[in-house]
Amino acid sequence: MRVVDFASEVSETLFFYIAKLRQLFKKKSSRTEHQDVVVRSERNADVLVPLSPKIRNFLTVDVECWFHAHNVGVPRSTWHLQETHILNNMDRLLLMLDTHDTKATFFILGWVADHFPEVVRMIAAEGHEIATHGYHHELITQMTPQEFEADLLQSLEAISRHTSQEVLGHRASNFTVVKDTLWALEILAKNGIRYDSSIFPISRKRYGIPKYPNRYPHSLRMPDGKPLIELPMSTAKFGSKLLPVAGGGYFRLYPYHVTAAYIRRMNALGLPAMVYLHPWELDAEQDRYYLGASKTFQHYVNLESTEWKLDRLLDGFSFTSIKEGLPSVRHMVRENVLPLFDLYDNPETARSNSNYLKKMSGKNAFKDILEEAELHALVG
Ligand SMILES: [Zn+2]
Q1: CATH number of residue 312's parent domain
Q2: Which of 29, 128, 285, 314 is packed most tightly, with the most Cβ within 10 A?
Q3: Which residues lie at CB < 5 A from ion ligand 1?
Q4: Distance 37 CA to ligand 1 centre (A)
Q5: 250 occurs within a structural domain
């Protein structure tokens, strides 16, 4: 299975480069044709938005230590015994953001808040947004709804001990809001979370919702009527294929100019990119372990490139936290409301969905616009 995964990663990367080269070639041969290509490749995009002069992209950090990554497989009972450079890594990251006068959203793991409270205080003191990454970094696909809610509340409690900032956002461990765990979104909304940034509209072994109906910021309406904003992870469309870009292992794997070209293209279309990284990805000096060919590759590839690539991105593009950036994409959020029912995939919820759609009356079913005041309350 690992070999298959590895082969799939490599073939996707090759596919990406081939598509990129073809695009560059077309750009050279005809500028007009290139414009068409861009428009055509985004024609089936989920939203049509007016061009915006200055798009602020989202910069997000999942605050965890190297041993929290599932690829590494360190048992939870030994986490407190592991060596970590999280303080040093956070120091460097915060300094870099300060140098570029840029704010970011930090999805903090509750475990980190409890064991390294100074991390929460450092982030808050610099005026960045604090959000939650759950407590134990457990995959939602391996939790019951009750366990997920307990883990979420434990993380919120841990974070609240060290900052008075209200937590508005959530990102799931390993993006495990998938078709079978959409109930997690209802639990988030019920507990006062205003936005989630966990859905990857691609197909992966552990995560992803292939054919997810919206790749850009939008609002989901929960079965009880509560709204929750979803900010999917960034993907680039090449032909009929969606590839992940602009974060984590993919950010390290792709050459800088590939990530930059993608962000430039998105911004030209009026769309913000979602960039994400982990503090341990700035630590090229960390001890390395053999985790099998595929996982070793994913976890350590181009580790030494994260820092300079990020530095260059911050030089070349405008970034901000989700909380600060949401108002600039509020037109997208407002015009793209999906009923959560529509995303479930079993007969009972499909039935509820069809009843719901009937109630929503025809053409407005997917365009139920949030009241301005309601949106204002969501995005602050
Ligand atoms: Zn994580």
Answers
A1: 3.20.20.370
A2: 128
A3: 62, 64
A4: 35
A5: yes
Question: How many domains does the chain contain in total?
Answer: 1
Ligand 1 centre distance from Cα of residue 64 (Å): 6
Who wins on pLDDT, 255 or 152? 152
From ligand 1's centre to the CA of 278, what distance in Å?
8
Say if 144 falls within a structural domain.
yes
Helices (H), 211-255: 248-253
Residue 344 lies in a domain: no
Q: Kindly state the percentage of the chain with pLDDT values over 90.
A: 43
Reported as type and span, the H/E element at residue 112 is helix 110-115
Give the model confidence (pLDDT) of 233-290 as tens digits.
998 877 777 888 888 778 877 888 888 888 888 888 788 999 999 999 887 777 777 7
Say whether pLDDT at 42 is over 50. Answer: no
The parent domain of residue 247 ranges over 2-334
Q: Give me ligand 1 centre to Cα 277, in Å.
A: 9
In terms of Cβ atoms closer than 10 Å to its own Cβ (0-12, 13-18, 19+), residue 84 is buried
Residue 343, domain member (yes or no) = no
pTM exceeding the 0.90 threshold for the entire prediction: no
